[in-house]
Amino acid sequence: MSFCNVSNVYHLNEYSPDEWFLGKPLHDEESTIIHHYAFAENPSIFKYPDFSAAWALSIPLLDRLASKVRDEPLKSDFTIDLKHEVALYIWENGQGPRLTAVPELCTEPEHSPTAQHCATTLSSPAPLCGEPVKKEDIFVAVKTCKKFHTERVPVVKKTWEREAFLLEYYSDHTDPSIPTIDLGVPNTERGHCGKTFAILERYVSDAVPKTRWLLVVDDDTLISLPRLQMLLSCYDPSEPVCLGERYGYGLGQGGYSYITGGGGMVFSRAAVVRLLASDCKCYRDDAPDDMVLGMCLNALGLPVTHSSLFHQARPEDYSRDFLAHQVPISFHKHWNIDPVAVFNRWLKDKSRSTSPRGLNKSTKEEL
Questions:
Q1: Which pairing describes strands 120-122 and 138-143: parallel, antiparallel, or unpaired?
Q2: What cellular-component terms does GO give this entry (predicted)?
């Protein structure tokens, strides 16, 4: 959570009343999928704001952008990283202003000696909203398939499986050594809608213990379950909660938001019951499960809740400065990395007292 030092905000008066786009700049070390591989030849050349430090637009720029949005709605199909996409929209392929760095917009800890000049700071790791959710209250569903039983599943077992109290692996092949459960849905190379909806059905059946929360992950998701337990203390499982990293599809043309599956999708039992009671279903087994669920939630008027602590991609795909002030909950993909080393560096806590920043009710971001 960010705090603002009002006395230092007056530094903005130093900027003339022209078109200004101000913030704490982030940049990519390498071209990344979450930014559509933009600026592939020199990714670090393009700067975009760290929203955690706050950002500012001058009124002349804001007026022009408002007119532009009315005349020319956003054209991008997918909204993945809003801070990068906002900067691209403002820049307009060189026709608009680039981000100007403002040293007073900071992500320093609130009580740090180095934060005296800062207009914005971050709170120290926040207290929990309550007691961490018990691990017995979270049912974990891991989606896998036969070809990854010996490649990806062992990584889960070496890293975060031990923190789960209730966990099942769902596959297209029964393997007692793991063990896996065959839900009767053939494996598909792309989307896994059929498998995910079968998991939802199993979750509310008598086949598994009744829990308040369902976590659905891929077999190449790396996740900290203790940190998730802390985050979930901020949410009421009696409400229809759908939580994770929120993406958007066609938002400029009346589209919808969805929880991207790779970073982990968290559902309260109430949300699963509402989803299954509706007419929403997969139009094909290989349809993208996260996007179909997003369409269903949108049709039902249920909120999609974003947390920046979930990550659809690898740590390498995010700005170093962006991750520097996070205690992340998840990452995704094993491409060109040692996933066990990534887990140990980013997600394994030496002490259970570590609390992610901003785990209080004010940090919930709902559509």
A1: unpaired
A2: endomembrane system; membrane
